[in-house]
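Prompt: I keep going back and forth on a fold encoding question. Comparing notes only helps if you start from a blank page. Show me how you would write down a chain together with its backbone fold. Please set it down just below, with no commentary around it:
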Amino acid sequence: MNRCFELAELGRGATRSNPLVGALLVHNDKIVAEGFHAFYGGPHAEVNCINGLTNRELLGESTLYVSLEPCNFLGKTPACTDYILNHGLKKVVIGSADFNPRVRNQGIDYLRSQEIEVLNLDWQERQKSLNIRFFINQTQNEPYFIGKLSMSRDGYIGRKGERVKITAPEIDVISHKIRSEVDAILVGKITWEIDKPSLHARLYHADIQPDIIVLDHNLKSSISTEDGRQIHFVSRDDPKALKKSLFDLGYKNILVEGGGEVFQFFSSHKLFHEVLWIENQDLVLGSGIEAPKLNHADYSLKEQKHYFNHILSYHQRHDLSTI
């Protein structure tokens, strides 16, 4: 099962709102096939694994290990439970049940009703760690918000009325990778009007570019860009209303990039589930717009990395696993 979770990680950034899932087949205590959910709308991990088995005669004598409960409904792909049943498997071991309360345990119950042995290891915490975004979406009915803020060594994020480049090009690649893993990027009206950001993930391979959300006090409208992206101008309602309106628009993972006032609003209302601070150790501005504050009592430092004289600090709300 540890290997299943390792395989699941290979799909990170490509499954969008779908969970990361890995699967493998074991015959006589040897792994004979592996698979993972590689991209949104594509075959699920179980299908890729079964299709990867060269000797099909082994299926009836093999055990399928899969990190998450197989789906039991027709979506963008057929139900994995039917695929398992149609290929003669007799035993399935899963990491945990699905987080979606509407489908939780249905895949397990269906397979058992068809006389397939199912063992649920119930690795809930491991599953939450792997698929925390999916967990929040399914249990809280709200988007997973990621805050990203870049600042100079002396604590400034820019200058008023002026566009200031904070990060080095090498760090921009990392930022674009993060952009490629979300549905939409949210900025404030001032950032949108002054910086005129493209908000693409062009420096990192991405088949689908994220949509854009502009937080405006008064305006509510939507437009389409030439490349098919949607730009939504959304009013800043109370936090609950804002979460609901964005979730109702279909956005499951949202990256909040600025500016300072917007970042402070999200931080003050504990809207962020995850925050990335980027500090350029080579840049000193001397004056400007001070970086907003993050209430560190609400967050835990998950990881800190050093790249090209930049410090990248990853924080996550410490209460996520207890929601």
Remarks:
- Residues 274 and 316 are 4 Å apart (CA to CA).
- The radius of gyration is 22 Å.
- The longest strand covers residues 144-152.
- The chain has two domains: 2-135, 141-322.
